[in-house]
Structures are given as structure tokens and as C-alpha cells.
Specification:
The complex is a heterodimer of chains A (162) and B (495). Chain A is mostly helical. Chain A is built from 6 helices and no strands. Chain A starts with a helix and ends with a helix. The radius of gyration of chain B is 22 Å and the shape is globular. In chain B, 61% of the residues are buried. The chains are: A mainly alpha (162), B mainly alpha (495). At the A-B interface, helix 4 and helix 6 of A face helix 1, helix 2, helix 5, helix 6 and helix 7 of B.
Chain lengths: 162, 495
């Protein structure tokens, strides 16, 4: 019961913050709303007993990425003009609403499989086992650093003068 | 046991490519003569291809605890990507002068994105597929922006933003499929779907929504029609060798992933494959028509080839729709349609690369991509014009070029599977497309040359062009050998 209430509060906060990110004209306020949205998502992870994921969410998204975004905004000129509106707002709203209806319909009318196993606690060793252990996800772990390498090279190319 | 899975000889093609990318970056710091970088890249590709060829024909195996398959299908695509990457690198040896400071980064990113594509074709697990796809995409986003002029930057930004949205849609689709089946391995997803004994779409809208969203996400990669809006601007703004690379390699990688995911995970029960077959058939019909009709009005040759590639994706999806009928039809066991799809990808890759290589040489001299400026090219650069003509004829699908055999295989496969209506639309479209391809040919051979100066080209570029054109002719005249390889690769669909 308590968890349900917590979930709904976090969900409302998260969705409201996400809407604010898109709708607010002031880019800086939008960035702060994004931080709030990330925090709400971290809270939802906690209600799902995903403690490790929640901490990672806070460290990486709320901590690092938000700071990066805010720093980038502070370095941008003409940030005062804010996020411009455009004439496709109404059609976009319509398509988004349609998509929302379809998703809600699909989610409500599907027989989702519900796990009968009680949630693990703590989850960190289990995640470590899944990532690095026998039969685990070692391949994506090995591809990820190559992805980062490509991204770093890209950052260098983008920043250096031609 | 564990050490075996961290290093396995079956992973050598990928490792070689990674090592050569790193070597290129390091070498860039020391060597003065930058053609060494291209040479090292090509050497890495050749060695990697050697390892891949050595594995050809063996039984299907899986490594990394079933996350990655080493089968003929994957090896066929790996070799295709390696050939494409090698030709693109050869064709860009002149062009890199436009971003001389970043040559090492350029070659390294081409190699890394080829590595991502090889992984896309081989991985059999949703998370790995996604990360491989991102590796490919991020390398390509950067490559598109290499020129650093306003057009190139705009193209890169557009590609990045739309690509990120497509990735989000794809992930949402994957999440729904995972939520429905509780598995991320393709084989286990298939097993989970079968064990649920569903009766139709109505009983599982969540699964269907997941599949549709995945089609949308992958559709972005192959430039299928409702998800094609990035193509013209990105193709126009990107450095021409990167445009060539995007138009063939990224598309082939998308098709490889679609074939593997939809075949391994959503092939059975048959109502499910009929559902997504129908989606692909409709996307194919719309894609061909929209791509060809908009291409008619283009004046910039890179944009024209962009819309043409949207249309070609439509023809390819005819093959995809035919493939999925397999479980139902009495033709079970024949792989003409599937082999035809792989053959089409190979011939399309060579053809488009040839066309773009000729365009690189011509536009380097002209500094323009307008079709009108190609006037009289037949007199200024007869060999380049001849090669471009051959490639355009192949894109129409006329003999003796490869495009004819490719379309023949795909369309006959589709007719066998009862998709006659789709083939009729495709044939009508081929006729429409002849108009805009032949217009370029006409301008080149019958137009008046604007000046008498000849168009120079480097040896490396000529080699790339010669290989592409030779490939187009060989595939067009004696298609048997490559078709046999394609059918061997497609065996995974029937076993």
C-alpha cells in the first residue's frame, strides 16, 4: 500500500517534470526540471527494489549528466532567447496523444508475465554476476568501451579547429 | 572455461578491426605521410576478412554464452561490410584533403563503425544488438559532420537528433518485447512466445506494439519510408565518401539485423510472421513509390541518390516480405527469396559505391553536386562517365548489370510466395526510376561540356572504381557464384 502511494507520487512528479522539460521556454529551468525527472525515476527504481540501479541513476544522471547539461547551457550564447516554438506544435501534440492512447491500450490489454520470485536484496552482487559471470552479458560489456572510444574520438574531432 | 569465452578465435575478425583502428589513431601521431593510415586500415580489413573467410562454411556456432552467432549469415555480412569499408577508404584518399588534420580519426571511425556493423549482423541478443547499433550510429554521426561547414554540421546534428529518437523508439520496443517474454536472447524469445500459445494479435497487443516499434527503430537505419526524413539532408551535407558508406553499409547492417531478429525471434507462430510480413509489404510499396517520385524532381545528384536509396530500400523490403512467408508456404526449404535479398544487398552495395566513387572524383574537380554541371562529362572524363553510366543502369535494373539479376531474384522470390501485387508495384516503380537515372546519363553524354579541362583522379580512387564496376558486371553476367554463397548464408532461415 505504502509502495503504491509512493509509486503514484513519484510517477506524477516524474511525468510533470518531463512535461516541463519539453514545454518550458527557459532552457535553464528545463534543465532543472530534467534533474527532478531523473530523481523521480531513481525513486521509482527504489520502489521496485532496484537499489543499485537507483544509486547509479543518481550518480550518473542527477550528478554527472545534469552538471554537464547546465555547464553547457552556461557556456552557450543567446541562451536568453529560450527554446523557440514552431508551427508543428499542434500536430505533434495530436500524434503524441494518439501514441499515448495506443500504448495505454496495449499495456492494459496484455497478459504480462508477473514474476512469482521475491525480489533480490541486495541486487549488486547479482548484477555483477550477470555482467561478468558465467553465462552473463560480457559481450555488451566489451562492446561498450569501444563505443566510448568512438565517442571520445568524435568529441576531439568536434572540438578541435579544422 | 571463462578465459575461453573472453578470448575466442571466432572473435578474431572483430578484434583485428579494433586493433587496426587503434593502430591508425596512434600512427597518426607519428607519421608525416598520411597515406600510411589508409594503408594500415586496408591491411587490417584484409586480415580481418581473411579470418572471416577461414570460418566460412562451418557449422553455426555461438560464442559469448550464446550472445553472438558465428554462422554463414553473419560471415556473409561481415565480408560485405569489410569490402564496403575497404572501397570507401580507397575512394576517400583524395577527399580527406578537405579535413587534413583529422585523417587518422576519419579512418579510425570508418573502421569502428564497420566493427559495429559486423557485430550488428552477428549478435543474437537484444542488448548486444542495441549497443552494436549505437557503436555504428555514433561513429557515423561524427563522420557526417567531418567537413565542419554549415551544411555538414546541420546534417550531422539532424542525423544525431533523429537517430536518438529512433534509438529511443527501438529501445521502447525492445523493452516491451522483453517485458512480454522475459528474455533478451532471440532464441529464447521465440521459445517464450511459442510456449504462451497465443492465438492472435488481439491476445497480445503489448507484443505487437513492441514489434511495431522495433520495425520503426530499424526502419530508420534502412531509410524505410515514414522514417526517411533524415536521408536527403544528411546525404547532401555529409562528405561524399561518408554518404556512400551510409547509403550502403548502414542500410545493409539494418537489413541484417532485421532478418536475424525477426526471423529468429518472431518467425513462429505463423500468424505473427504474417503480421510483420504485411507491415513490411506495405512499407515496401510506399517506400518505392515515394522515393522514386520525389527523386524525379531532384537537381542535386547526392539528393537524387538519397531518394533513390529510399526507393531501393523499398525493393529490398519486397524481399523481406517474401522471406517471412516461408513458414506458411509450400516452398518451405527453398531459399531463393532470402538468398535473393542478400544478393540484392551485395549488388546494391557495389553499384552505389561505384556511383558515389565516380561522383567523388567529378565533384572534387567541379566543386558542385548539381546534375546540370555534369553536362558533357562524357567528353571531359570518359572513363568516369562510363563507370557512372554502368552503375546508374544497374540501379534501374537493366542487364548486363548486377541490378538486373538482383531484382530478378527478389521479384521471382516474391511471386513464388504469392506477393504478385507487390511485384507489379515494384516493376512499375522500376520503370519510373529509369527516367531520373537516364536523365543523368543523357546530360553526361549529350550535354555540352562547360570547359575542356579534364577531370583528374587518384590511383586509389580508380582502383576502387574499377573494383566496384568489375563487381557490378561480374554479378550481372555470372551471378551464380555469389548467389550460391548468398543461399548458403540464407540456410539459417530454413534449418
Amino acid at each position: 500500500m505504502g509502495l503504491d502511494v509512493a509509486f503514484w507520487i513519484l510517477a506524477v512528479v516524474g511525468v510533470t517534470a518531463a512535461l516541463a522539460v519539453v514545454l518550458l521556454g527557459d532552457v535553464f529551468r528545463a534543465a532543472l526540471s530534467l534533474v527532478l525527472c531523473f530523481l523521480a525515476v531513481a525513486g521509482i527504481y527504489l520502489t521496485l527494489n532496484a537499489d543499485f540501479l537507483a544509486v547509479v541513476q543518481i550518480l550518473v544522471y542527477v550528478g554527472a549528466i545534469s552538471v554537464l547539461i547546465i555547464l553547457a547551457i552556461m557556456l552557450t550564447r543567446e541562451v536568453q532567447r529560450g527554446s523557440p516554438s514552431n508551427r508543428l506544435r499542434i500536430p505533434a501534440l495530436f500524434v503524441a496523444a494518439l501514441f499515448l492512447v495506443v500504448v495505454i491500450y496495449a499495456l492494459l490489454n496484455t497478459n504480462w508475465q508477473i514474476s512469482s520470485v521475491p525480489p533480490l536484496e541486495p541486487t549488486t552482487p547479482a548484477i555483477a554476476g550477470l555482467l561478468f559471470g558465467e553465462g552473463g552479458f560480457i559481450l555488451p560489456v566489451e562492446i561498450a568501451p569501444i563505443l566510448l572510444l568512438a565517442a571520445i574520438i568524435g568529441a576531439i574531432v568536434l572540438v578541435r579547429e579544422k | 572455461m571463462f578465459s575461453e569465452t573472453v578470448f575466442t578465435p571466432l572473435f578474431l575478425p572483430e578484434l583485428t578491426l579494433l586493433v587496426s583502428a587503434v593502430v591508425v589513431i596512434l600512427l597518426d601521431l607519428f607519421v608525416k605521410r598520411k597515406w600510411w593510415l589508409a594503408a594500415v586500415s586496408i591491411a587490417g580489413i584484409v586480415v580481418s576478412a581473411g579470418f572471416a573467410i577461414a570460418m566460412w562454411g562451418g557449422d553455426s556456432q555461438s560464442i559469448f554464452f550464446g550472445m553472438m552467432a558465428v554462422d554463414n549469415f553473419a560471415i556473409f555480412f561481415k565480408l560485405l561490410f569489410l569490402v564496403i569499408a575497404a572501397l570507401v577508404i580507397l575512394a576517400s584518399t583524395d577527399y580527406v584533403a578537405k579535413f587534413a588534420r583529422f585523417q587518422g580519426e576519419y579512418y579510425a571511425l570508418v573502421l569502428l563503425s564497420a566493427l559495429g556493423m559486423m557485430l550488428m549482423a552477428a549478435t543474437t541478443e537484444l542488448i548486444s544488438i542495441y549497443i552494436a547499433l549505437e557503436l555504428t550510429s555514433i561513429s557515423l554521426y561524427i563522420l557526417v559532420g567531418f567537413l565542419k561547414d554549415p551544411k555538414s554540421t546541420e546534417a550531422s546534428l539532424k542525423y544525431l537528433l533523429l537517430g536518438a529518437v529512433a534509438s529511443a523508439i527501438l529501445l521502447f520496443g525492445m523493452a516491451l518485447v522483453f517485458g512480454f517474454t522475459g528474455q533478451t536472447q532471440l532464441g529464447e524469445i521465440a521459445a517464450a512466445i511459442q510456449s504462451l500459445s497465443l492465438s492472435g494479435v488481439v491476445s497480445s497487443p503489448g507484443l505487437m506494439l513492441g514489434i511495431v516499434l522495433m520495425i520503426a527503430g530499424f526502419g530508420f537505419k534502412i531509410a524505410a519510408v515514414p522514417f526517411h526524413m533524415w536521408v536527403p539532408d544528411v546525404y547532401e551535407g555529409a562528405p561524399t565518401p561518408v554518404t556512400a558508406y551510409l547509403s550502403v553499409a548502414s542500410k545493409a547492417a539494418g537489413f541484417a539485423v532485421i532478418l536475424r531478429v525477426f526471423y529468429s525471434a518472431f518467425g513462429i507462430p505463423s500468424w505473427l510472421s504474417l503480421d510483420w510480413m504485411l507491415i513490411f509489404a506495405i512499407l515496401a510499396a510506399v517506400g518505392m513509390t515515394v522515393g522514386n517520385i520525389i527523386a524525379l524532381t531532384q537537381t542535386n545528384i547526392k539528393r537524387m541518390l538519397g531518394y533513390s536509396s529510399i526507393a531501393q530500400a523499398g525493393y529490398l523490403m519486397v524481399g523481406l516480405a517474401a522471406v517471412s512467408f516461408l513458414w506458411e508456404s509450400s516452398y518451405r526449404g527453398t531459399v531463393t527469396g532470402q538468398g535473393g535479398l542478400l544478393f540484392f544487398l551485395a549488388s546494391y552495395a557495389l553499384t552505389n559505391l561505384g556511383a558515389f566513387t565516380a561522383i567523388i572524383a567529378i565533384s572534387n574537380k567541379l566543386d558542385s553536386d548539381l546534375i546540370a554541371d555534369y553536362s558533357g562529362m562524357g567528353k571531359r572524363a570518359p572513363l568516369l562517365a562510363l563507370a557512372l553510366t554502368l552503375c546508374l543502369i544497374s540501379l534501374i535494373g537493366m542487364p548486363p548489370a548486377a541490378g538486373f539479376m538482383a531484382k530478378f531474384y527478389i521479384f521471382s522470390g516474391a511471386v513464388q510466395q504469392g506477393l504478385l501485387w507487390l511485384v507489379i508495384i515494384a516493376v512499375i516503380n522500376s520503370v519510373i526510376s529509369a527516367y531520373y537515372y537516364l536523365r543523368v546519363v543523357k546530360v553526361m553524354w549529350l550535354g555540352k561540356p562547360a570547359s575542356a579541362t579534364r577531370v583528374p583522379s587518384s590511383i586509389a580512387l580508380r582502383v576502387a572504381l574499377a573494383i566496384s564496376c568489375l563487381g557490378v558486371l561480374v554479378l550481372g553476367i555470372i551471378p551464380g557464384f555469389v548467389m550460391k554463397l548468398a543461399e548458403m548464408a540464407a540456410q539459417m532461415f530454413v534449418s
